[in-house]
């Protein structure tokens, strides 16, 4: 007679033939592939949405004359320790596309900005964002989660849209600078808010340390932007 599939508590808890099903290797999170469906990630991201490191204060007060590395991260890259929770993962998967979507905006600011300070700020921020993106992608890779973007095609708060970029490409002079600084401020403010939520609800020390670095960077970048707006020359 053929044997039936095991039933009862042992089957429900992963026991088969007296052996316990292997657990995920520490430091990686393969369970995420089945337990965090895209809709769950979107819901987590929506909660976060609801809610680099400046080297000195002088660089912030005089941002339009600061060296390129003034707003960039200087500390070693924090990486996940294996205790990632859904908030950590949702934050990483949201921040990466947010940063990717702001790069074309910074490219336009660097090449088409009317005020010299606008062009300088855009160039500096683009350099630091490339570094930040590398840190975020490395942290996501360490969790074991695939690099797929669950927010592809979504225009979420803080993400520069294709329509906004099209308008910028046709704008000129002071009108361009006004549009550029407005979109940049929206991105910086929203990513700062999302990052604060990660520090409250995240679990992994490495991801939270990276979030703390990003939050400090955003505060300084917003100060630099305000300085440029006050004195664009």
Word description of this protein:
The model is unreliable at 1-78 (pLDDT under 50). The protein contains 9 helices and 2 strands; from the N terminus they run αββαααααααα. It starts with 8 loop residues before the first helix and ends with a helix. The chain is elongated, with a radius of gyration of 21 Å. The chain has one domain: Ferritin. The chain is mainly alpha-helical.
In the CATH hierarchy, what is the class?
A: Mainly Alpha
Strand content: under 5%
What would the CATH topology be?
Answer: Ferritin
Q: What's the tally of helices?
A: 9
CATH superfamily: Ferritin, core subunit, four-helix bundle
Instruction: List the domain count as a whole number.
Output: 1
What is the number of beta strands?
Answer: 2
Q: What is the C-alpha radius of gyration, as a whole number of Å? A: 21 Å
The CA-CA distance between the termini, in Å, is: 87 Å
Mean pLDDT: 73
Percentage of residues in helical conformation: 55-70%
Major sheet: arrangement of strands: 1-2
Pfam families: DUF305
Protein name: DUF305 domain-containing protein
Organism: Nonomuraea phyllanthi
InterPro entries: DUF305_CopM-like, Ferritin-like
Give the SSE layout:
Elements: H1 9-12, E1 15-16, E2 19-20, H2 32-35, H3 38-50, H4 57-61, H5 86-112, H6 116-143, H7 162-170, H8 173-201, H9 205-230
Helix pairs in contact: 3-5, 3-8, 5-6, 5-8, 6-9, 7-8, 8-9
In short:
The chain is mostly helical.
Structural descriptors:
233 residues; mainly alpha; Ferritin; two-stranded antiparallel ribbon; 9 helices; 2 strands; 62% helix; disordered N terminus
């Amino acid at each position: 007679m053929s044997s039936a599939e095991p039933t009862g508590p042992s089957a429900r808890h992963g026991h088969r033939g007296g052996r316990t099903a292997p657990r995920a290797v520490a430091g990686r999170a393969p369970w995420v592939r089945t337990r965090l469906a895209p809709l769950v990630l979107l819901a987590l991201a929506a909660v976060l949405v609801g809610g680099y490191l400046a080297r000195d204060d002088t660089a912030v007060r005089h941002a339009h004359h600061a060296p390129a590395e003034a707003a960039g991260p200087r500390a070693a890259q924090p990486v996940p320790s294996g205790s990632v929770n859904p908030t950590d993962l949702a934050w990483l998967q949201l921040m990466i596309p947010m940063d990717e979507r702001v790069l074309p905006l910074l490219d336009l600011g660097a090449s088409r900005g009317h005020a010299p300070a606008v062009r300088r700020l855009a160039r500096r921020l683009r350099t630091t964002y490339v570094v930040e993106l590398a840190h975020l992608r490395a942290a996501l890779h360490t969790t074991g989660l695939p690099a797929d973007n669950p927010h592809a095609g979504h225009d979420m708060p803080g993400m520069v849209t294709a329509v906004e970029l099209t308008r910028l490409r046709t704008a000129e002079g002071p009108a361009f600078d006004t549009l550029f600084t407005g979109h940049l401020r929206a991105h910086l403010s929203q990513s700062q808010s999302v990052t604060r939520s990660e520090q409250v609800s995240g679990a992994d020390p490495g991801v939270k340390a990276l979030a703390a670095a990003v939050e400090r960077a955003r505060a300084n970048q917003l100060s630099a932007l305000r300085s440029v707006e006050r004195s664009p020359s």
